[in-house]
Amino acid sequence: MxxxxxxxxxxxxxxxxxxxxxxxxxxxxxxxRGYPIEEVIGNVxxxxxxxxxxxxxxxxxxxxxxLEATLVASVDHGPQAPSIASARMAAxxxxxxxxxxxxxxxxxxxxxxxxxxxxVQLLNxxxxxxxxxxxxxxxxxxxxxxxxxxxxxxxxxxxxRFHPRDPRRDPLLRLVEExxxxxxxxxxxxxxxxxxxxxxxxGERRIPMNIDGIxxxxxxxxGVQPELARGLFVLSRSVGILAHAWEEKQAGQRIKGPLPxxxxxxxxxxxxxxxxxxHRPATP
Length: 284
What we know:
Elements: H1 11-17, E1 23-26, E2 29-32, E3 35-36, H2 37-40, H3 46-55, H4 61-73, H5 82-91, H6 97-105, H7 115-133, H8 137-150, H9 169-182, H10 188-199, H11 211-221, H12 226-251
Antiparallel strand pairs: 1-2, 2-3
């Protein structure tokens, strides 16, 4: 059989079709980025293995510790989070645990779950302009905030609809500052994030960074690309999604909707009315 180009596919064509630099397998052999699995097991932690697979290199201890703290901070935010609620609801509908988890993960989009990616991109932009154009971070931060407000958009990574001050901010920020002081990371993106936070202050009103903002600082400092940063958040939140879906399945209740019975969602449509005669079938 020939392709539409007339080229006869070869064995090399077939093996190159899904070529990968991530994993090599052969009968009795598995290697992750070149490291035999039997050497990885027991020697490389799960978080370090995540870094190895996604970036191609084993992390330093400092990178591993920052990454682990950030992943732990993002694991869960309770059943009011749409991703968690969606997974719990799905778990009561007779689907498998994997389907319930997938249901929750699939809710993580630009609005719920995407702010970290957007904040990494914002930090990258600020640092790039600061270093290439010599513009002060404070001015760039004010311009970025004005741009978001002009578009009616939230500044990603700052403020929280539930927490006046996100309890995950301070411990992660402290770890980042300690890493900067040791010379483990540059501190360039930390400076940009703090400049944004200061620019958002209005008198007594403060809009501190949230988990997405402080996580974005970590990921940007570690050189993680914006979209991969979202992937790492999804990986982290999958832990909470799994735990909630499993708990809901263990409860054994069937078909739980968004409201407990007998509560019903408010109806805001037309009042009860009859179908007009013109739309009724003719009487034989």
